[in-house]
Amino acid sequence: MLAPDGTISARAQAAPADCMTLEALQPPQANTTDPQKPFYIDTSGLSGIGAMPVHDPHNPLYPQATDLPDTTLPPVEAVGNFILGPTHALPAQWQDVQPARGRLISFTLTSSPNSGYHPGIMRDEPEPCATGMRNVSTSQPGDPSILNVPGAHPSPWTRTVDVYVPPDTPTGQPLPFLIFGDGGNDGIYPGRDLFALVDRLTAEHRIPPMIIIGVGAGGGDAQGSERGREYDTMSGDYADWVETHILPLVEQKAGITLSHDPEERATMGFSSSGAAAFAMAWFRPNLYHRVLAYSPSLVNQQWPHDPSLPGGGWQLHSPWAGTPQAMPPQPGAALMPAAPKAPLHIWYEVGDQDLFYPVRPMPDGMHDWVLAGENLARVLANKGYDYQFVFSRNARHVDGPTIEQTLPEALEWLWRPRERPQDGQ
Q1: Among 279, 289, 238, 260, which residue's Cα sits nearest to residue 376?
Q2: For 25, phi and psi rounded to 5 degrees?
Q3: Residue 407 and residue 425: Cα distance in Å, rounded?
């Protein structure tokens, strides 16, 4: 996640060495040798340099991608897979950017019987370490894809919603909008810099005029938290909650009308909120057609466990890893490969040092963030999706320099004019 000044926040940086070491990231008793057995973890193409493994973008497991000269970005009209160089310079759109000139409306929501997601969930950490859950949780015997989380219990939540209305926005017509998770006071996001960037890109006619909505997370992180429950659940629940509990308040408090055209609605997120951005569009394509995500958690983070989708976000692109792919397809089949192409436009990124097995008791073959992104890229290419996938060298999970480098191009790519897609095409 990003701090308001565009830098990586303390929350997003690696935990202290005694809490998260490379050795701790290697799950004990993991199957790393036999791909024909359940829960296989492929460690080819990984090095032990740094706090996280470094992924090789030319790993033969991954679909082919175009290497870009250092400091350059993919063409804004291009579709496919691209590899950024290791230097992440600020593009021209960030140079001398002026402060945002529009209206910022903020309001707070608190959980209640009428708020949705009531009661919330929180997890008591058993150690004085942000990663204590990783060391005390256990997976179900015989099925490491099911995580038992001690200390999770009902809890209220409070969150902030920010609404940015750019200058000279017409108020007498339905307006396009971009909504992103991990916003609000407790979130780590581009903040006013995003709003100023939107002003500039709009003035340069690179994107259409639009409303920006940042929704705070429900608290905590990962399994056993309200944030994890909302963002990592692979269903249309979060999109429905936004539609029912957030967007009407946005319209009321900002005095605007939001578009109901899914071509004029975009979702954006970071890490687990990036997974939520995918879920909002995939499960509710009648509501959203445009997706932008950094380091999306398209892995098995869903909690509580859902036996109808045992791999959580991993199953958007790949089969559940508990059985060989030749086994009967349900309930472990991958969703996107088996379904008709949805009318979506997708831009997303992962870093070469992105997350790899942050919870030690889960040697389930479904916790490699980079492999998840690469698997999705293969699916999108095979199905003929309108997408751009960026693999960033010298980049960690939700990498601040990479976001600063790519966000102007990503927004322009996401909103560039296209022929209106049709379902199944």
Answers
A1: 279
A2: -80, -15
A3: 27
Q: Rounded to an integer, what distance in angstroms lies between the CA atom of residue 217 and that of residue 243?
A: 16
Cβ-based neighbour number of residue 235 at 10 Å: 15
The rounded distance, in Å, linking the Cα atoms of 358 and 272 is 13
Are the CB atoms for 224 and 123 separated by under 8 Å? yes
Q: Percent of the chain scored above 90 by pLDDT?
A: 66
* Residue of 382, 301, 397 lying closest to 336 (CA atoms): 382
Q: What is the pLDDT of residues 238-247, one digit of tens each?
A: 999 999 999 9
Residue 361, both tokens: 């008791």
- Rounded Cα distance between 345 and 338, Å, is 18
What is the pLDDT of the chain when averaged over all its residues? 87
CA atoms of 344 and 29, how far apart (whole Å): 39
**Calpha distance 1→405 (Å, rounded):** 15
Could you report the per-residue pLDDT of 138-192, keeping only the tens digit for each?
A: 888 888 999 998 888 999 999 999 999 999 888 789 999 999 999 876 555 555 5
Higher pLDDT, 372 or 46: 372
CA distance 382 to 362: 30
Contact present, 324 and 36 (Cβ < 8 Å): yes
Q: Which two tokens stand for residue 65?
A: 């991608």
Instruction: Quote the CA–CA distance of 118 and 97 in Å, as a whole number.
Output: 41
* Confidence (pLDDT) at 130: 53
Distances (CA, A) of 87 to 96, 257, 295, 393, 401: 20, 41, 18, 8, 9
Of the candidates 160, 257, 278, the residue with the CA atom closest to the CA atom of residue 210: 257
Q: Which domains are present in the chain? A: 22-415 (3.40.50.1820)
What SS3 state is found at 231? helix
